Amino acid sequence: MNEALLEVNNISVSFDGFKAINKLSFSIFEGELRAVIGPNGAGKTTFMDIVTGKTRPDAGEVIWGEKNFSLLNRSESQIAQLGIGRKFQKPTVFEEQSVYDNLLLALENDRQPLSVLFYRRNQSDDAKIEEIAAEIGLADRLERRAGDLSHGQKQWLEIGMLLAQEPRLLLVDEPAAGMTLEERDKTVALLRRAAKTRAVVVVEHDMDFVRKLDCRVTVLHEGSVLAEGSLDHVTENQDVIDVYLGR
Ligand code: ADP
């Protein structure tokens, strides 16, 4: 296995005395695709909030890249700049702008959609945008208004906007929610492609989707790791069957 890119070490966090994360430890490795699953309330969102600096743990460490480089006490924007991108469930693209301009704004790391009026298109941006558009399956829709894309296409565009910022780790929250079957399969292919050049962590409910991702799975329960390994391995685990599959 490669070197750990992100190491979550014995972290705990309580909300009003309730332990949402309880001595959670696990690592994400350079360039891997990982699914994080678990029932509602298992702590998946809180885990992502802690890694991205939105929530501070009460105890434990979050270590990035090189040994002893702590992510604690860093702001959300500092953490993003270090190379951790996060895709929330709802797509947040600039609806009035074209696919091209959305990717350009992401490339320029600019949150003001009207700024595109002042940018001059240049070859290096064009090449980068075409490369990302191909990666997210929107190469033939660059001039399309983002608001006119399907739900699935908007999700891919937002993933593309994150890829434009060249993350080393991409956290993706339930990417397949609300997608058609065809879009879900394309999303599987997109995430597998994306994980060839950076680590991708997918938080997902849908077992069928996780099976198609065909990657290492971490099962969370009550804020801790219950099991880890291939999907077949974790779904044979009696604890997982009891708490997650409810059999
Ligand atoms: P998951 O994403 O796996 O469904 P969450 O991380 O959202 O789980 O939540 C873990 C537990 O922590 C849940 O019981 C949830 O109600 C609780 N929780 C999460 N955030 C807060 C908060 N800001 N205040 C109080 N309780 C919270």
UniProtKB/TrEMBL annotation:
It comes from the Bacteria. GO terms for molecular function: ATP binding. PROSITE patterns: ABC_TRANSPORTER_2 (PS50893). CDD domains: ABC_Mj1267_LivG_branched. The keyword Transport applies. Pfam families: ABC_tran (PF00005). SMART domains: AAA. InterPro entries: AAA+_ATPase, ABC_AA/LPS_Transport, ABC_transporter-like_ATP-bd, ABC_transptr_urea_ATP-bd_UrtD, P-loop_NTPase. Keywords: ATP-binding, Nucleotide-binding, Transport. Residues 6-247 form the ABC transporter domain. NCBIfam families: urea_trans_UrtD. PANTHER family: CONSERVED COMPONENT OF ABC TRANSPORTER FOR NATURAL AMINO ACIDS-RELATED (PTHR45772), HIGH-AFFINITY BRANCHED-CHAIN AMINO ACID TRANSPORT ATP-BINDING PROTEIN (PTHR45772:SF8). This is ABC transporter ATP-binding protein. It comes from Maritalea porphyrae.
